[in-house]
Amino acid sequence: MPETLGAKDRILIVDDNEDIRRDFEKILGGALADATELDALDRDLFGDAAEELRVEENFELHQASQGREGFEMVRRAVEAGRPFSIAFVDVRMPPGWDGVETVAKMWEVDPNLQVVLCTAYSDYSFEQTTEALGGTDRLVILRKPFENIEVRQLAHSLSQKWVIQRQLRLRIDELEAANVRINDEMRERRRAEAALRDAEKLQAIGRLAAGIAHEIRNPLQIISMNLEALAEVPASVTALVAECSRVLRELVPGPEDAEQTERRAALLKALDAQAILGDFLEAHEEAREGVRMITDTIETMNQFSYRGVVGKDAVDLNEALRSAIKFTRAEYCECAELVVAYGEIPPVQCNRTEIVQVFLNLIVNAAHAISEHNTSGSLRGVIRVRTSSEDGYVVTAFEDTGGGIPSAILDKIFDPFFTTKEIGKGTGQGLAISYRIIVESHGGRIDVDSRPGVGTTFFVRLPI
After folding, report:
1. In this predicted model, what pLDDT tens digit does every residue of 402-419 receive, in sequence order?
2. How far is residue 206's CA from residue 211's CA, in Å, rounded to a whole number?
3. Within this chain, do residues 297 and 368 fall inside the same structural domain, yes or no?
């Protein structure tokens, strides 16, 4: 079955000679009625196979008498979404633009336009033309006088070339759009896989924390019970000492010599409960305080333990912040003073474990920033943490007196694996994970304000 190509291809004729424009009209406009010449040439070249591909000549012709007029027609056609496929342009069109200038202007608004430059003179050499218009396959030069068959062949071939290129561009656009979608899907899959890995790590850490807490709790209970038992010893010793002193004083001895009197006085002086129990009482109280500290740490570890629950509950962020501070004390205690201001804030629906992890990351980052800035170790930095409620968010701010973040890399700090630390001292995942938890998992925001040489403040905003 014959394939029909080139239906309603729009062709623009730009020539100052009305007779020539009329000739183009005859050659291209009435081609359906008079195709004998081209058909005969097809049969001579291709034989009977020519019948299998018939090019239906169905051109929509438009005319312009000057270059500027032709340019305006091309511009309006592009704006209307019905561009011309071919323009036959004369070289000499006084008094306005010549053909080369006209083509250059046309290509500015429609770079896909196929052009046949018609000339009977040597106004421009081929080198001058290509220099003015550039080396391109969109341009064909046709010498006057030309044969009808030349015009028709050019119209057919260039219109089909224009159609194929247009289809190719559309296909490329579709492929590029599909590529964008695939890349987006791949990024989303990588984010999901990273979130799953993080969840598995948190779950493993939680199990480890719970196991450690359990193993510590049993011997700690024994120590605590013994300390409570020892707490009764001072009272018993004090009572015994008092009774001994009383007995010694009330005892009526026989005649004493000076040596016996001196020994009795020394014994009464030695029976001083405070002196006997002084070191014991201090050590006992320190041991009890140590047990309380370990108990608090175990409770924090139990709260941090991840049991595979990824849901969200109403969480007191002040309490979550206290847990993070306890965990990170070893990171900041040597290099900085931590100043905390707990505000009046409502509970927030969130995953407590993930939020504690974010707070951990930001406190540790602040401590590291201060340590790297204060290389001499002569001055302690300050980490200020504060919570507040504003504009429908609970805001937790982490401010440090480190060296700040250079503006050139400020927009990269949340990228996965980006780090300014030495190899082996940082994975570049802390801020990336924090961003994913706050923004993607909780619909919040994490912003940063940094001044090089002064310090950095991170703002974690979670919706109420």
Report:
1. 988 888 888 888 876 666
2. 8
3. no
